[in-house]
Amino acid sequence: MGLLVAAISVVSFAAVASAEKTETATAKPSAIEQRQLAYLLQSASSSEAKVWKALFQPVTFDFQETPLEEAVAYLAEKVDCDVVIDETALSDVGLDPSVPVTVRANGLLLKSALKTMLERHDLTFCVEDGCLVITTPEAAAPNRLVMVFDVTSLAGDSPILSSYGGGYSTRGPSIPGMAAAPGMGAEENQGGGAFGAVPSPEIGACPAYDAASGLLDLLFATVEPTSWDTMGGMGSSAVAVIRGRTCIVVAQNTEVQIKVAELLARLETVAEKGADE
Questions:
Q1: Per-residue burial over 125-162, b = 16 or more CB atoms within 10 Å of its CB, e = otherwise
Q2: Average pLDDT for residues 41-55, to the nearest whole number?
Q3: How would you class 72 by CB atoms within 10 Å of its CB: exposed for 0-12, middle for 13-18, buried for 19 or more?
Q4: Residue 14: pLDDT above 60?
Q5: Cα dist. 208→108, 151, 211, 235 in Å?
Q6: Radius of gyration of the chain (CA)
Q7: Tell me: the pLDDT tens digits for 203-256?
Q8: Which of 121, 126, 272, 276 has the largest count of CB atoms under 10 Å?
Q9: pLDDT digits (tens, 9 = 90+) for 83-139
């Protein structure tokens, strides 16, 4: 894949001078967004964690017919993150890094600001090899991240999850790269199809494991349903018990992983409010 590093040295700062003048944003991620980020960081490598944290930083800018490569480089400097442009993918759809962008943002999180800026040219972003990559939806779709989410706190007595499925789940028995998930060796999985093993009856009968299976059903029904292998998509997920913690292991593209983390964050917030009442 041909990647153009968004080098700050080639940026014409005059093109983004207005962004410098209006940079007064003091917005911070909401409580839900902070929880969302926490989920995304759980199994991230150090380089991936830097990208996720950058995506949740607020940014302010006013780009007027600014070349994409200059806009991207400006943002990369502001959030201190490596950002690259997939030249090959852009070329495949008739674009190049100099395509002009016109968009402004005032205190938006980088993930939202990028989405607004890139969608106007049918582009998107993904996390790949510890970098934030600007690319096309077609190129990003097969680039699946394998992430482990600790859902122990959600796998207790949850009225929300109790209506979704029963018994243990063996969905996603062949998630590629799962054995290499950070700190998650196959020998530590006691019950999930995540590593290609059949869940044991003892684990399957566990209420927490049962609730986590219900959580998978909720994911498949509400988070980009057609993107999962149950509906012919490329994404997959499974329940695993790792070091005594109930987890779900998800192999999905960046956009869906962000949405999965948001759903988990919202469920956690609802569960805490219910416990306080």
A1: bbbbeebbbbbbbebbbebbbbbbbbbeebbeebeebe
A2: 96
A3: buried
A4: no
A5: 37, 9, 5, 23
A6: 20
A7: 444 566 777 888 899 999 999 999 999 899 999 999 888 888 889 999 999 999
A8: 126
A9: 999 999 999 999 999 999 999 999 999 999 999 999 999 999 999 999 999 999 999
| pLDDT at residue 169, as a whole number | 36
Q: Where are the alpha helices (DSSP H) in the chain?
A: 17-21, 31-41, 46-55, 68-79, 87-92, 110-119, 137-140, 159-162, 201-204, 207-222, 254-276
Structure tokens that stand for 15 in this block = 């093109």
Domains of the chain with CATH codes = 3-140 (3.55.50.30), 145-276 (no CATH)
Tokens of 78: 């502001």
Which residue's entry shows tokens 């096309």?
A: 136
pLDDT by residue (tens digit) across 161-209? Answer: 444 443 333 333 334 433 333 334 333 333 333 333 333 334 444 566 7
CA 271 to chain CA centroid, nearest Å: 22
Identify the burial level of 275 via C-beta atoms within 10 angstroms of its C-beta, where 0-12 means exposed, 13-18 middle and 19 or more buried. Answer: exposed
3-state secondary structure of 23: coil
What distance in Å separates the CA atoms of residue 271 and residue 260, rounded to the nearest whole number? 17
Q: Which two tokens stand for residue 110?
A: 């980088």
Cβ-count burial of 168 within 10 angstroms (0-12 exposed, 13-18 middle, 19+ buried)?
buried
